[in-house]
Amino acid sequence: MKPTEGAAVTAAEGLARGRPKLDTVPPGDARDRGGKIQPMLAVNGLKKHFPIRGGLFNRRIGSVRAVDDVSFVVLKGETLGIVGESGCGKSTLARLLMHLIPRDAGELIFDGEGVEEAHGLTLRELRRNMQMVFQDSSSSLNPRLPVEDSIAYAPRAHGASRAQGKKIARELLEKVGLDPSLFGSRYPHELSGGQKQRVNVARALALNPRMLILDEAVSALDKSIEAQVLNQLRYLKRHFNLTYVFISHDLNVVQYVSDRVLVMYLGQVVEIGPVEAIYDRAKHPYTRALLNSRLSMNPDDRVDEAPLTGEPPNPVNPPSGCRFRIRCPFAQEVCAARTPAIGNWIDRSSHLAACHMLDAASGHSGAGPLPAGVAPNPASPWRQTSHEGAR
Fold first, then answer.
1. pLDDT at 15 over 50
2. Please, which pLDDT band fits residue 375 given cuts at 50, 70 and 90?
3. Domain segments of the chain as ranges
4. For residue 194, what is the enclosing H or E element?
5. Which CATH class is domain 38-262?
């Protein structure tokens, strides 16, 4: 007779209910190649256009521009939150980073080494250093394997013996708050949603990676279980010296876990900056509309009108210039004529947005003055825009 859920929780008291027992980890990371200043991941000009085929000879008649010239960096030890409406390219971006789908253009640099480049990181080495936790905890697990075997699969594929893989799996189950003697032999259908997601986190940690991509990892969980998993992720980040890319629709969750936030719209980055700056002083009209769409807990502070109306444009034929302009209340002629530049990233405090209202040289009537000491340079597409000129 299998133990019940209540019995499992009782037997694992101090694990499933409380914080897992994590060993003290010494400072520094022996796996570090590029030093503390070197970003963990640098993404430059990443593109993915899915072909649309039709006609008599099944020719290519168009493309879905899922990810279109995306560039950003992920710093070591931080959590970068990625937000945006459904269909903006967040999950496609995650799969491109993991090389689950091939990229059309762009480069990925992991800790100073190019991925799949001469004298760079091979795909096998990248997978050792970067893993992913998917949204659907059920379909992510093999229904024919006990969870202990699912966790041990990756170490065995990378050369570990059966005994070593089993040892790794049992240690990781304990670290994610599940008693290995009770849960190791269970199959996925015998676990709750929160337990399955903990198993997925343990499986992602099996190769001792340096970076995790969490694609809507808690969106399907109850709020109480979601809070437990989020706290678990924070403890594991400190213990394993991890870097996170956290993708979510829940702006409150992103604010809770993130150090910096990246906002996507229709396959492009429209704003990126520290979490406090994004949530308190958002620059891009789309970011402000997203934040204003959050429901208030104050019954006297009701939202009478939706801050953002209409559907996003078709990614097959996006608008010219600024892609947000057809929904933006501040759109002018220059917004259709030229694509706004997002600016130069300098350090973790950089707060950048792709909006003509932030460029005094753009010709937009709402553009603020240039910051002191910064000369207008409209020919440079990566000019730093660090002022609060949007209004």
1. no
2. very low
3. 38-262, 319-391
4. helix 193-204
5. alpha beta
